[in-house]
Specification:
Length: 173
């Protein structure tokens, strides 16, 4: 379990106002990695327990600034997603073998496609949140990367229109 907060003492100063949640339009966005944590994936029917990289990405848009979390599951069947992220922030080239320098991720900039994910909150209400559909190579835009992605399991549509692709959630059940 990751500990993202801390206990506030009775005599501590209080400063953080928090931010409003911004549901971004689906489409292509630039991001900056603002946080990296080492985590643990508890396992599923398709992937055993293993390490995961927990990333917080800041996205600025016309709708406002928001943070989107992305988990990179450290298992061989999900290695493509880790490579996709590393290519997005310029730390890897296609086909290149690299050793990740985890301490250098914060501050890196890249591009990604955002889609909406629907979930049910603890009150039984259906809500939507921002979700990373895929990361885009540093030297490509979403439209230019379509040809490169046709050989993968991801299919794309035009920028700022909903995408249809096989969900990563299939692998995490």
């Amino acid at each position: 379990m990751s500990n993202e907060g801390y206990e506030i003492g009775w005599d501590d100063e209080v400063e953080q106002d928090g931010g409003d949640f911004v549901l971004l339009d689906e489409g292509e966005y630039s991001f900056t990695v603002t946080k990296f944590e080492r985590g643990r994936f508890p396992g599923s029917t398709k992937i055993p327990p293993c390490n995961k990289a927990v990333l917080t990405l800041a996205i600025d848009s016309d709708q406002g600034r928001t943070s989107v979390n992305a988990d990179l599951i450290m298992y061989s069947s999900m290695e493509w997603k880790l490579s996709q992220f590393l290519r997005s922030v310029g730390l890897k080239k296609e086909g290149e073998k690299v050793r990740v320098k985890w301490d250098q991720l914060v501050g890196k900039k890249g591009r990604c496609m955002i889609k909406h994910r629907t979930y049910t909150n603890k009150n039984g209400e259906e809500k939507q949140t921002n979700d990373i559909d895929r990361f885009i190579d540093a030297n490509l835009s979403a439209e230019n990367s379509t040809a490169a992605l046709k050989s993968s399991t991801v299919r794309t549509s035009q920028v700022n229109k909903p995408t249809t692709n096989t969900s990563n959630d299939d692998l995490l059940d």
